[in-house]
Write a structure and sequence with these properties.
Layout lengths: L1 E14 L2 H4 L1 H19 L7 E4 L2 E5 L9 E4 L3 E5 L12 E5 L1 H7 L1 H15 L3 E15 L19 E6 L2 E7 L6 E7 H8 L5 H7 L8 E8 H6 L5 H15 L3
């Protein structure tokens, strides 16, 4: 049995009248951010929440890489700039769809809901560009052995193999900086070790997948690769999925 999905999606958005329209929002976020920073400095465990539109988030007391505000929940991570950058290629809104959202709601529905949230909360979307998408499939009839490494073909330069209890538990091809990075790993083992994403069990039961033997084959596709394939927005990604899988030689 094999099921496939998008496991991670990261996209940046340009918003009309971004600074002018959201002055009150930025004032609220700055106040909440300072509260979160104070709680961190004083070693308090209290999380600072903020509800924007119809979604509630936790806010961090710091920013990162051009984004003043970082908000997150179990489904999404939102990065917001306070001001527009002088670099036209840097968009003020960056969103990461997390695995649970994409699997529980479906990538098309989750995109539509976020698009609705952006329009309601921040303003009209002028443009968007996808910077990363992870295409994955879960397989329950796969067993990796050391000799399997020789069977993989491609233009990658790096390959790594990892063992757990002297059994192959993961194979990686390429690097995290490569336009395409392939990971194949024991998903059951990952959940057992990290104790995260146990909700996958219900999805596997629904598709009659062997809960004791699930392997994840995942292609991490970065901006350079997506640009080469002329994939910028969600419509282009959605219409290209079958072509991408054929190119990647899976499914």
């Amino acid at each position: 049995m094999l099921i496939s999905n998008i496991d991670t999606l990261i996209c940046s958005f340009d918003i009309a009248d971004y600074e002018e329209r959201n002055i009150e929002l930025f004032s609220l976020l700055e106040e909440k951010k300072q509260d979160a920073a104070t709680a961190t400095r004083e070693f308090e465990n209290n999380e600072v929440n903020v509800k924007l539109g119809f979604i509630e988030f936790k806010i961090l007391g710091n920013g990162r890489q051009g984004y003043a505000y970082i908000l997150h929940n179990d489904l999404l991570e939102i990065n917001l700039a306070r001001f527009r950058s002088k670099m036209e290629s840097f968009y003020p809104l960056r969103i990461r769809w997390k695995s649970e959202y994409l699997w529980s709601c479906g990538f098309k529905n989750s995109w539509q809901l976020v698009e609705e949230w952006i329009k309601e909360t921040l303003g009209e979307i002028i443009d968007c560009k996808i910077s990363r998408v992870d295409l994955c499939c879960h397989i329950d009839d796969l067993k990796l052995e050391l000799y399997n490494m020789a069977n993989f073909k491609g233009s990658y330069r790096n390959q790594n193999i990892y063992l757990t209890d002297r059994k192959v538990s993961s194979m990686n091809f390429g690097s995290r900086n490569s336009p395409v990075y392939l990971r194949i790993y024991d998903k059951v083992l990952e959940i057992k070790v990290t104790r995260n994403k146990t909700w996958f069990n219900e999805i596997w039961k629904h598709f009659n997948i062997d809960l004791n033997n699930v392997w994840n084959v995942e292609f991490e596709l970065h901006r350079d690769f997506l640009r080469e394939k002329q994939i910028n927005n969600f419509t282009e990604l959605y219409e290209s999925l079958q072509t991408l899988w054929r190119y990647l030689k899976i499914g």
